[in-house]
Amino acid sequence: MAAGEPRRVGYLYVLPALAVYGLFLLFPLLHSGWLSLFDWDGLSPGTWTGLDNYVELATEEGAAAAFGHAAVLVVFFAVLPVCIGLVLATVLHRTRVRGLPFFRTALFLPQVVAMVVVAVAWQRIFAPDGVLNAVLGTPGRAWLGDESTALLAVGVVGTWVQTGLAMVLFLGGIGKITGDLFDAVRMDGAGPVREFRTVILPSLRPEIGVALTLTVIAALRTFDLVYMMTPQGGPGGSTTVPAYEIYQRAFHGGQVGSAAAMGVAITLLAFAVTFVITRISGGGRR
Amino acid sequence: MKVSAAERTGTYLILGVFTVFALYPMVAILVTALRSEVAGQGGIHWENFAAAWTQARFGSYLFNSVLVSICVVALSLLLSVLAAYAFGTMRFRGSEVLFYLVLLGLTVPAEAVVVPLYFDLRDLGLTNTYASLVFPQVAQSVAFGVFWLRTYFRSTSRGIVEAARLDGAGHWQTLWRILVPMGRPAMVTLAVLVFMWTWNEFLLARVMVTGEELRTAPLGLQFFSGPATTTVPLLAAASVLVALPVVVLYLFLQRHFIRGMVDGSVKG
To answer: Smallest CA–CA separation between B139 and chain A, in Å?
Structure first.
């Protein structure tokens, strides 16, 4: 980096941002680490328990279930949208589509709507008298009220939200590939599949990395959807996720230390995910 | 490029299917919002919006959302511009370390800090205040804003800055008279993103606000959807009211906004 000229006045410019950032993000993060070493209900004095909360997270069934559900959501929030986004972007690139701006705008739209609204809309679709049952011919089925389908239903909504984001990122990436590359493989007589494998996929590595990072972290963070669509963590706790457990433990269960430990755990997970994906996709830049 | 008619048809088919998938839930909720509260009665019922507005005290919720969003956007933008300018154009001891420290905030999930934040702010007597809704969101947005705008400041040409210097402009004037006006697209994209995140934020508001008078719109919707007395059309109308400001803003600025997303995510 080391760009720019030497200037001590720089400290004054960064100070206000650093102050707010330090007080309202960095300090709470460290405080979270500290709280995670206590058994505390939020009111009476806490007792030091060392790493007990972490040991508990690793062994306790509720926590394991929450992380398991998060893993399922990663498939719906990240893997599926990236795959569908790749197909859509490739297909759009090959054909000169009329009304491309319309399609792009429409497919991205789910990203901008508040999750609470998304939840209300999809609750109606999954309702016993909703459109899904009408289409599938399964009247009266409560998709969100059934232990075997509630998490999958939340997952489908995640796919719905994230697909447009992935597609838009990939369209931008394909736009940056030089035409020569395409010409070369076509001269070779490559069909769409080989063109995808040899040109598009390797060139899109940075964009795939960004899309995966954003969507995996979104999956790890899911709270609003679960909280609104399946109150109480779904039937039989089938949709509890780490963020939901954090909220529940800290503010309703009187287990602040355990909630803080869970917060530290998802922060570390988010770091790990970012690190690994950035490494694999080549640092996010060409 | 030339493709076969079959491939063309296939393209439109795939696009059509996914566009319907993307739009259906939103169209459905809009249609429901205009339906009669009494089942089986036809016609378009605009009065649902008025009813949702008054019954759910939406005027007050939307006011809170607007106020909080404006404060967060303005503060985040100001702090990000100042810091990104220094990180992008100046060199000082520790600037690299400080920059990476801020970048760290990009990956910290808000869900992980909301618990200590609540207890810290409670001890200071700050829960259930506008400050408890504004500052944590500024802190989150500043991490992104500094990252986003530093790229812009680094890409500005040295020549312009030096020309300004020769004209006798100091670093302060160079920033506000030249670099900020030139960087309008980057700032607008940042402002729209921060506005969207702030407007849609739910967990932080859910935790910080205990009374009714500070509830933001997404929070209002949650409480509105609770009581069994609410009819489906009213709930749908309230949902439309919550989503509308961001959707309208997005539709107005989408070209600009999507380009910003693409340019910023990966440096080309």
So the answer is: 4
